[in-house]
Every structure is written in C-alpha cells, then in structure tokens.
Amino acid sequence: MFENSSKTNLEKLGEFGLIKKLTENYTPKNPDLIKGIGDDAAILKTNSEKLQVISTDLMVENINFDLAYTPLKHLGYKAVVSNISDIYAMNATPKFITISVALSSKYTLEAMEEFYTGIYLACEKYDIDIIGGDTNTSPQGLTISITVIGEVSPDKYVTRSGCKPNDLLCVTGDLGGAYMGHQLMEREKRVFLANPEMQPDLEGYDYIVGRQLKPEARKDVIDLLSELSVKPTSMIDISDGLASELKHLALESNVGFNIYEEKLPVDTQTLEMASEFNMDATMCALNGGEDFELLFTIDQADFEKIKSNMDITVIGYATEQANICQLITPAGNQFDIKAQGWN
Amino acid sequence: MFENSSKTNLEKLGEFGLIKKLTENYTPKNPDLIKGIGDDAAILKTNSEKLQVISTDLMVENINFDLAYTPLKHLGYKAVVSNISDIYAMNATPKFITISVALSSKYTLEAMEEFYTGIYLACEKYDIDIIGGDTNTSPQGLTISITVIGEVSPDKYVTRSGCKPNDLLCVTGDLGGAYMGHQLMEREKRVFLANPEMQPDLEGYDYIVGRQLKPEARKDVIDLLSELSVKPTSMIDISDGLASELKHLALESNVGFNIYEEKLPVDTQTLEMASEFNMDATMCALNGGEDFELLFTIDQADFEKIKSNMDITVIGYATEQANICQLITPAGNQFDIKAQGWN
C-alpha cells in the first residue's frame, strides 16, 4: 500500500522528531499568523471587521476511510477539504487549520509524509495555513482531527436557520457520485481479497472514483454567489447525504421541504454504476453523502440571478409544514424522506 | 465502572440525537459567541485589541487514560484542563473550546453524560464556553480531541523562545505527583485484576491520586504574575515532564539550563510513594509528566517580585550552552538531562 521503498520506524524519531520532520519545510503564508507550529499554542491577529468561524471534525480509520483503497495523500487532501467545506457552508473563508493525528505502530515516517503531502496540497489550493496540531500513539489504526478557523463579514454569514417558507432549495454540482465511487471500490476490494492476482477494474468510472477519493470544497460557488450578490437564506454542506442535511435545515429553520425527484442532479457514471449494482439512483443521491456540495435556500427574488448557472440546480422549495421533508416523484406521488442518524 | 443504573444504547439515539442530549441544557455565557453548537461552524466576535491563541490536543484510550481507574467525569474535567493549560502557558486566557469524541459501541448515553458533566464543570470553573464539536464511531475505545481558543494582549504573550542566558528558571507547585498517583493506581489495578475481591488501597495518598485524576490548570499563577507585573521571558506547561519541557525551552530559546536537584519541589506523598516503589523521586519529578504546572523563565531583575511566593520555586538558571540541560546534585555532580520523545 505504501509505495516508498525506504521505511523509517516512527519510534526511532520520537514524537517531537516526527512533528519536526513533517513540518520542517513548511512556511506559513498568512501575515496574520504571529506564532505557528512549535509552541504551546498558535497566535493569530484577527481582522476587527470580520467575525471568526470555527469548525472541527474527527475521522477514524475503518469508519470514515479504508486504507485498502485510499492512498494516504488523497486521505490528507480529503481530510482538509471535508473540514473547510463546513466553513464555506457558513458563506465564510477558511484561513487556518490545526491537524492532530493518533497513529498505530504500523505507520512509518514515509507513510505520514505521504499523508502530509496531501494536506499541504489542499492548503496550497485553498490558501490555508497550518498553525498547529498534536501527534499521538493509537492502539489501532489512524485517527485524524482537524479544526478550521475562518472569517466572514458580519453581514454575510449564513446559518442553517434563516430559511422561510417558499424559499427555493438549491444544490451545487451533482449528488451520489462519492457514494457510488465508494461502492465500486468496496466491490473491487472484495474481488482483490478473494483473488489477490486480480487488478481492480475502475475503467470508465474515473469521475465517481475521483468524487470519493479527491473531493473538492465549493469555494468557487461561494465566490460566485458573492459576485451575483446572492446571500442564501440558509446553507449547509452535504457530508452525510442530501436527506440528512435537508432535515438539519428544516429543523433549524422550522420549515419543511418538498423536493422533486426528477430535479436531483445525478451524473451519468453515478446512474450507470447504480444500475450495475441494482440500486436506486435517487436513494444514492438522497443518502449517499461525502459529495461536499452545498445545499442552500434563496429568496424567490434571487432566482433570476442564479437560474442560468449550470452548476446550481433548484430542486424544490421550503414549506410551512415544520420538519416535513417530502420527495415528489415524476408521477406526483409523495414520500416522507428518511435519513440516517435521525432516529 | 459506570454507576448509573439505566443504560441507553447510543445507536437508538443516532448521532444527532446524542449531540442534542449532551448539549440541550447548555447555555453559553460569553456574549461574543454569535452562533455556537448546532451549525456547520461556530461564529465568534473577536476583540480587536487582542490576539487570538489556539491550541489542540488528542487523547486516546489506553494510551493517555485508563478507564479501569479513571471515572468518566474526571476524564472530561482533565481533558479540558490539560488543553487550557497550553493557553495559560502562552500567558493568555482561554475563552472557547470545541470537543470531538469517537466512541465504540460499549459506551452508553449515561456514560457520555458523565463525561460531559466533567467537561461542563471545568468550563464553569475556568469560564469557558463550548462552541462545537463532532461525534463519531470508533472501532475500539474512546478518542477525545479538544481545541481551545483564547486571547491575549499583543504586549503580554509569552512563547518558548524568549529566554536569555542567566534568566532564572521557575516552576509552580510541585512535580512528580501525577506520575506517582498513576503508578499507585496501576498497582491497585493489577491487584484488583488478580483478585477482584480486593478493594483498592489508596488511603493516605489522596493528594497524588487527585493530581492524576483531577489536575488543575494554573490560571491563578497567570493572574498572580500579572498582578506582580512579571512577564516571563519564556514559558511552557508541564505535560510531558520537566525534562522534556526544559528541552523545548532550551531548543526554542537557544540556551541551556542548569537545575539544582535539591530545589525541585516534590510533595511528601510523592516522596513516600516513590520510596515504596523503590523509585528515585528526582527521576519522577523530571520525567513524570501530567502535573500541568508552569515552567517559566524570568529576568533576574524580577526575582524580588516573586521570591516570597510559596507557589513558585526557582530551580535553576539559563546558560549560554545551547541545548545543554544539566542536573546538579547536592554533592556538585552534573548529569545531562534526558527526556522521552527526544531521540
């Protein structure tokens, strides 16, 4: 799994040696960072005209990721992306992150360097600085904890709670791809375990594999909404699946939602893979998760501003029926939407 | 281990049900918190005259804590204290924390409520607000990740790197107690495992047991130094042991240290327990860790201001010999100080 030929045992380095190795070539870019990695805490200068936005996530091996088919570089990249996605979902800009890892003795220095390469790539792309973290031993596997610090103007932030009845429900990109990519890789893993001489067959499915392994956060959409002078009335990012996020918006805004099945944006590869697995593509789009697209509501008056954008789809609208989320099929049937984690 | 009689399986609640249960009675106190738990991210107003200070820690079951003798309430309390201790070590004030936990299916709602009771107690005592977090499943045990956000005036913060040769090295409280408390509880655990009818014998050792199970952060010392108008030239908190922290100060300040064995502050219970275990009390004080006392250096001109304070001990001084840390025995012998994690 780890392709580097040389392997350095982490015990030889010691905790402080490891941190030094992983961060020695890293130079923070943001002039507001007064003290970064290497002290008890980081010190930041804050912009007095902005509010600060803070989010945190914990990822656990074999629960949130499977290293059998996730290269460590991709894992590092995805760990950053999935976290900053929460900051964009507040209509804010991520600036700094802390990264903590607990790792078992199976990890080598070279493996951790791979992981950090992915982290650095994401930080570069999204213009973020690493300001600290913690390294620890774990009895089993890898656990990653990231905290992101961002900023937003007081008049621009968007929570989950501002949606009003009749607001339009919009989603960016397409849905269910990351989930179908996951299903595909799980299948190929089973094939490989049964017969280690088989090579994984991912041909023709690069898009959904990429959605699972190297997702992006929708910074571009946040920038676009700002250009278009559209401030969503509520917003959330899709990490647990459309159905679950919809319930969050409904609960916090005290509204309901009707969404139209035929409006759900689903990529061709997702459709094909769903059909190969005998799965319902709508269910994948509703419950798949990890797409890191944005789900938001806008005032109807803003519809003209966004309607010609290919990357934003209006999939339904908010109703007055608090917490009732319904899917309307092309035939006009209505179903209550259910979601995991909402018992 | 969990004393509550009713047990609620976490799967029944779902992730969002659990977070709601654990936080439903929690009301943040700080008016600068614009949006707390319950959105993609928290939103804070920052004080434009202050800098922001951020630190993070990861604690792993059976590596950093043993639930065989650590009540979950104490664990929650200690998790907060050990984190905010890093903020005090910057001469700053902690204001907000995020808490993430990954937990296996052995944990019940009642167990998590115990854990959060300890967290809330520490937040109350140190005047901190919880602003967010994450809850996740773990294949094994409990992992806790906490990030603390604090603030400090630009002219007051203290890093590890400002110490000059001849500065005096000071330590607060006493050392080695948490470690000896740990040794004692490990022994009683072994006795209990060998014969479950034996009750743990901790009598006469309440101080060192308390040092291990319910440590405090030295907010009082930070307040005192401010009253005395003493700004340390460098500072760190003692989490990995005096020896390791000394090496951090030496490395970052490019100095060395001479410390006097007979000056090391060690409590009577620590001495007695060390003698019972046939251990060298000096080694316990040097390498014990988890005392969460502050280690700092001051200009010699400030000695008069602190000399009569019972809670601060001058244990040595900084030298020009970069990275050479030496222990001087009462007989005048000198030994190089070694520390774990520094290979």
What's the arrangement of secondary structure elements?
Two copies of one chain form a homodimer.
Chain A: H1 10-13, H2 15-23, E1 33-35, E2 42-45, E3 51-60, H3 72-88, E4 93-103, H4 109-126, E5 129-137, E6 142-152, E7 168-172, H5 177-194, H6 206-213, H7 219-227, E8 234-237, H8 242-253, E9 256-260, H9 268-276, H10 281-287, E10 294-298, H11 303-306, E11 312-319, E12 325-328, E13 334-336
Parallel strand pairs in A: 4-5, 9-12
Antiparallel strand pairs in A: 1-2, 3-6, 4-6, 7-10, 7-11, 8-10, 9-11, 12-13
Helix content estimate of chain A: 25-40%
Globally, the shape of chain A reads globular
Major sheet characteristics of chain A: 7 strands, mixed
Count helical runs of chain A. Answer: 11
N-to-C span of chain A: 38 Å
Number of domains as seen in the coordinates of chain A: 2
CA radius of gyration of chain A:
21 Å
- The top-level CATH class of the largest domain in chain A is Alpha Beta
Low-pLDDT runs of 5+ residues of chain A are none
| Percent of residues in beta strands of chain A | 15-25%
Name given to the CATH homologous superfamily of the largest domain in chain A: PurM-like C-terminal domain
CATH fold type of the largest domain in chain A:
Phosphoribosyl-aminoimidazole Synthetase, Chain A, domain 2
Largest interface: A-B, 73 and 74 residues
Element-level helix/strand string of chain A: HHEEEHEHEEEHHHEHEHHEHEEE
| Assembly state (oligomeric) | homodimer
Strand order of the largest sheet of chain A: 8-10-7-11-9-12-13
